[in-house]
Amino acid sequence: QVQLQESGPGLVKPSQTLSLTCTVSGGSITARNSAWGWVRQCPGKGLEWMAAIRYEGSNFYNPSLKSRTSISRDILKNQYSLYLSYVTPENTAMYYCFNAEDWGQGTQVTVSP
């Protein structure tokens, strides 16, 4: 069974870059036809898809976030990471990593001075 586990700083100051990592176990991020992504849920709002990276390394971004978002991977560690630059308090949310069938438990990120 594939398991995903998010890790992040918890608290970020405005204008900083948020860095989140998803550690995958029980499966490979290079498994053929797999894709791995990030979504977030801001307080009182629905899920917002942010970015994804496919097994061969191609990546995809939410157009509304593309200018501030980057997704990358570490194959040796079986991890992939999301970077969101110039964060604001509006970026306070629960961030989740996921694939087609599995989700992490989420990590809370608060943006505050």
What report would you give on this structure?
The protein contains no helices and ten strands. With 113 residues, the protein is mostly beta strands. The strands form two sheets. Strands 2-10-9-4-5-6 form a six-stranded mixed sheet, with no helix packed on it. It has a four-stranded antiparallel sheet with strand order 1-3-8-7, with no helix packed on it. Strand 7 and strand 8 (79-84) form a beta hairpin. The model has no long low-confidence stretch (mean pLDDT 97).
- Provide the residue-averaged pLDDT: 97
What structural category arises from helix and sheet content?
mainly beta
**How many helices?**
0
Provide the β-strand percentage band.
over 45%
Q: Give the biggest beta sheet.
A: 6 strands, mixed
Secondary-structure element string: EEEEEEEEEE
Helical coverage, percent range: under 10%
Could you tell me how far the N terminus lies from the C terminus, measured between alpha carbons in angstroms? 39 Å
The radius of gyration over CA amounts to 13 Å
Strand order of the largest sheet: 2-10-9-4-5-6
The strand count comes to 10
Contiguous uncertain segments of 5+ residues? none
What overall geometry do the principal axes of the alpha carbons give? globular
Keywords:
globular; four-stranded antiparallel sheet; single chain; 113 residues; mainly beta
Question: What is the secondary structure topology, with strand pairs?
Answer:
Elements: E1 3-7, E2 11-12, E3 18-25, E4 35-41, E5 47-54, E6 59-61, E7 69-74, E8 79-84, E9 93-98, E10 107-111
Parallel strand pairs: 2-10
Antiparallel strand pairs: 1-3, 3-8, 4-5, 4-9, 5-6, 7-8, 9-10
